[in-house]
Amino acid sequence: MSLHSQKPILMTIRALLKPNSQLDFAKLQARFNAEIVQAPGFVSVEFLTYGMIVQRFSDEHFASAWRASQTYAELVEDFKKCAVNQAVTEDFSAESNLEHGVTEVFITEVTPSQDKAYQAWSARIHQVEATFPGFHGVYVQAPVSGKGRHWITLLQFDTIDNLDGWLNSKERQVLLSEAIPLVSSLETHRMISPFSGWFASVAKKGVLPPLWKQTMLVLLVLFPIVMLELKYLNPMLTGLNISLKTFIGNAISVSLISFPGMPIAIWFLNWWLSPTPQQNTRAMHILGTGIVLALYVITILLFWDYL
C-alpha cells in the first residue's frame, strides 16, 4: 500500500483477552484514548468488548506515523499484558468514503468444527450484500490460528438508510437462518463518525454533517472549556497524580461538551451543519465557516491574557 495514499485508513489491533482482564483493558482504553486524540490525522477510535481497538486516520501517512511512534509501541505492550500469551494482531485497511459512510461491526463466534462451513457461508452473504445500493466494502479478520473462534467483519455502506436496507432485507434474513448451526454468538456495533451522537439530531436522510464541520464545532466548544479548567480547576487539583488530574479534567470536559456546549452550538449553527436543499449553497457554506473562524479569533482574544 503506497505511503502517498490519501484514502482514510482503518487500523485495528485485536487480541484474545485473558480471563478477568476486563479492568486492565478498561484502564488501557482510557490511556489509549488520551494519547491517540493528540495524533495528527486522527479521526476516531472504537473499543470493542471482545478485545479489539479500531483506529481511523485521515490517510495512511498519519496512520503510519502513529504506528511508528514510541507512544503507540508502549500502548501495544500494555495491550499485550491483557492478551492470552501476549499475542496481539495488527492490520491496516484503506476505508473508502469514511467521511460520509457508516460501518457495522460484527463479532461472530463460530461453532467449533464449523470454520470451513462458516467461511463458505460468509462468501455467499458478502456476494449478496455487494449488490445492494450504497455498498462500499467489507473487511474481514479471521481469528488467530489456535487462539479463538471470533471473526471480525466491518461492513460499510454510504448511509444509514442503505445499511439498514440490507440488514433488514429478506435476502439477508434467509442467509442468517442458514448460519444458525454455524454461529455460537453474534455481537454488533455501529460506527458512524467520532461525534455521531452529538450530531444525530441534525442528520438528514441518515447522512451526518461533514466530518470537517463536526470537528470545527467540537473545537469551538472545547477550547473555552479547557481554558476555564486551566484557570479554575487545575489549582484545585494541585498535589494529585497527573493521571488522576487528567482523568478528572477529561471527564468534566466531555460532560460540558455533551451538555450544554454542543446542543447550544448545534442549535445556533444548524443551518450550516445540515442545510436544507434551498440553503445548500456555496455562499452559505462560506458564511458558516467564516462565522466559526471569527468565533475562534474572538475566543482566543478573550482568553489571551486569561492565565
Give me the secondary-structure topology.
Blueprint: E1 9-14, H1 22-36, E2 42-48, E3 52-57, H2 60-67, H3 70-82, E4 89-94, E5 102-110, H4 115-129, E6 135-141, E7 150-157, H5 160-167, H6 170-178, E8 183-191, H7 196-199, H8 211-236, H9 242-268, H10 270-273, H11 282-302
Antiparallel strand pairs: 1-3, 1-4, 2-3, 5-7, 5-8, 6-7
Helix pairs in contact: 1-3, 4-6, 8-9, 8-11
Task: Summarize the main sheet.
Answer: 4 strands, antiparallel
Radius of gyration: 22 Å
Determine the number of helices (DSSP H or I, runs of at least 4 residues): 11
How much of the polypeptide forms β-strand, as a percent range?
A: 15-25%
- pLDDT averaged over residues: 80
CATH topology of the largest domain: Alpha-Beta Plaits
What is the N-to-C order of secondary-structure elements (H for helix, E for strand)?
EHEEHHEEHEEHHEHHHHH
What share of residues is helical? 40-55%
For the terminal residues, how far apart are their CA atoms? Answer: 46 Å
Number of domains: 2
Quickly name the level 1 CATH class of the largest domain: Alpha Beta
Structural class: alpha+beta
Low-pLDDT windows of residues? 1-5, 95-100
Gross morphology is: globular
